Amino acid sequence: MDWMLEELATSVPHVRHVVVLSSDGLPIARAGEESEARTNDMIADRLAAVGAGLKSLANSVAADYFPPEGRSIRMVAMEATGGFYYLMEAGEHAYLAVLADAEVDNQLMGNQMRSLVNRVGAHLTTPPRAAGQVT
């Protein structure tokens, strides 16, 4: 599935990494800056874990402050010194996360993320794990 993310990683200037993650924080696919495969795997693992945490926090905010029909988290954007982290719902139990430099065009990023999810969202869905299931 990595090839589906490569277009996003290369079509928006200043994108560093793109990861699809399951709702429990496991990376499903990745694309982005070329470096040693082990380093890319570690980055994908960390970005997926961060995404799961942000999703959980965002769900808590939505549950407390938005009406029940508005509680689905569509996108979370975080700006820090030096860059941005975006998290978007990509399918059932799946999320798209992007790490980008500060120079990224936020509007272009949002549009490209939505476009990717609209085109391939059905392929990004992950079934929930059953209790005791080994992956």
From TrEMBL:
Pfam family, one: Robl_LC7
Superkingdom, taxonomy of origin: Bacteria
InterPro entries with a match to the protein in the record: Mycobact_SerProt_Inhib_Rv3364c, Roadblock/LAMTOR2_dom
Residue ranges constituting the Roadblock/LAMTOR2 domain according to the UniProt record: 2-100
SMART domains: Robl_LC7
PANTHER family in the record: SERINE PROTEASE INHIBITOR RV3364C
The name this protein goes by in its record: Roadblock/LC7 domain-containing protein
Organism: Streptomyces meridianus
